[in-house]
Specification:
Blueprint: H1 12-24, H2 30-50, H3 53-61, H4 64-69, H5 75-91, H6 95-109, H7 117-130, H8 134-150, H9 164-171, H10 175-189, H11 196-208, H12 224-236, H13 249-252, H14 261-272, H15 275-284, H16 286-291, H17 296-314, E1 318-320, H18 321-328, H19 335-344, E2 348-353, E3 358-364, H20 371-413
Pfam families: eIF3m_C_helix, PCI
Organism: Panicum miliaceum
Domain PCI: 198-366
Amino acid sequence: MATIVNTTEEEPILAVVRFTAELAWADAGLEVADPEVTRLCLEAQEHILAGRWLDMASLMLASADLLLTSPSRVPDKGTFLFLFLFHLVTKAGSEDQALQITDLICAKLTQQPDDKPALRLKVLFSLYNLLPSPYGKAFVYKKALELATAGKAAEYIIPSFKNIDSFVSEWGIGNLEQRELYLAITRILKDHKGMTKDYFKFLNKYLATFKGSDDDSATIGDAKEEAVAAIIEFVKSSNLFQCDLLNMPAVAQLEKDEKYQLVYELLKIFLTKRLDSYLEFQTANSALLKDYGLVHEECITKMRLMSLLDLSSHCSGEIPYSAITESLQINDDEVEQWIVKAIAFKILDCKVDQLNQTVIISRHTERIFGMPQWHGLRRKLGVWRGNIASAINTIQANKVTEEGTQAMHGLMIR
């Protein structure tokens, strides 16, 4: 329900100040309330006449806590006060002043995150939508993330994560700002049920901000815990069969790290080796797998599918059953079962030739899609373009021949 303020003939902004002051001090009694309301109105009048909108915002924020936290207040009155403060943002004489007012509002809203976090987030997003400055929008969104985390109100901000790519493009923020953003999002998603896939996605985004340059040398060590978390999430996932983690500097640093070297080795096995390598690793490091919550049987299942992909990438289009049984360590009668699993996960397109005991591969997922895979794709596209050009030339040549034959036929008739 909208809040209506009777401004009479008084300056509209001053009328709003009087209205909110009276509301804020309503429970204090007339002896206390009247002098405070009068004082606030006089100060507001001075600020209005001088155009000091930042001071005006500071004055109005004095009433914010009472309107937001007092149980006797009508909930939409607090929202109304902040909407009025947003109006001051639009009246600011410069972008810097508008950002200063925005900073004051955000500071007030995030002071007590446990108190009505949903309402506070609603107000922050209203401010976000009002601001024309990309920098201001990025600043407010960051504050909303902090509030959602501290106030344990993640469910109110998680839906916005699907638009992060467009947000980042709109804000034009740099690599370091993106890194902070993605890290904040991963911390929200980490313990949120049903968000494992998104958690892994934003871990990747965060880790990808480390380019391995000299600028990262002082901070890349801070990414070790997230790098380990990403590896474990990939190994644990039953439907992820491709990732670029191995080539990321933030992950590669683990290879020589005394504490996390084995975790990196595990990732390398899942992305570049076959089941026998995993079984050897598990025999020597079963305690490590348990410490990270990895289930041996589930790892075997995934490694069999990974081994099947490895076979597909090294074959000439056909894989004999014998190679599959040896690599996956299964019986002959289980081959088709694993082929069906791979097709169901959409990591393999193939046909089974039962008569000749072979699997004919038409497409397979690459476990790693780095520069070698890009070069391979480029070669395939080159061959495809050449075949298309050859087909077009053949069609044109046949067309010319046909037209010549028809012309000759016409002359003979004459």
